[in-house]
Amino acid sequence: MNKELCINCNEVGSHFVPPSLGEEGFFICKKNKREKDLCVLCGKETKYYKDTHVDLRENYVDGAGQLCGNCSDNV
Questions:
Q1: Is the pLDDT assigned to residue 73 strictly greater than 90?
Q2: How far apart are CA 52 and CA 71, in angstroms?
Q3: What pLDDT shows up at residue 30?
Q4: 0.70 exceeded by pTM
Q5: CB-based contacts of 58: which residues, under 8 Å, 6+ apart?
Q6: Among candidates 10, 59, 21, which has minimal Cα distance to 38?
Q7: What local confidence, expressed as pLDDT, does residue 21 receive?
Q8: Is 52 exposed, middle or buried (0-12, 13-18, 19+ CB in 10 A)?
Q9: H/E element holding 45?
Q10: What is the DSSP letter of 4?
């Protein structure tokens, strides 16, 4: 467990995601992990992060929110 100071949130602790293959020595702070947006109809995770601008997304409905591909095809 990593007990070093996190450079993202400045807290000490073991709240790091272990490095993935190919990311030698890099840890990602769980607290600052980018979250994916959820489909407003079915609740499934979409391919877009919450901070992705709506103009760069497919299946985004103004006034409603993000749809997944399946729900968008069925609306």
A1: yes
A2: 19
A3: 60
A4: no
A5: 69, 72
A6: 59
A7: 43
A8: middle
A9: strand 45-49
A10: S
For the chain, domain boundaries: 1-33, 36-74
Q: Which amino acid is at 36?
A: K
User: 21-37: buried (b, 16+ CB within 10 Å) or exposed (e) per residue?
Assistant: eeeeeebbbeeeeeeeb
Distance CA(41)–CA(69), nearest Å, equals 11
Residue of 18, 60, 66 whose CA lies nearest to 42: 66
Which tokens go with 29?
Answer: 């702070």
Q: Residue 7 and residue 4: Cα distance in Å, rounded?
A: 9
Burial class (CB in 10 A: 0-12, 13-18, 19+), 40: middle
- Tokens for 45, please give them: 């995770």
For the stretch 29-65, pLDDT in tens is 666 567 899 999 999 999 998 888 999 999 999 999 9
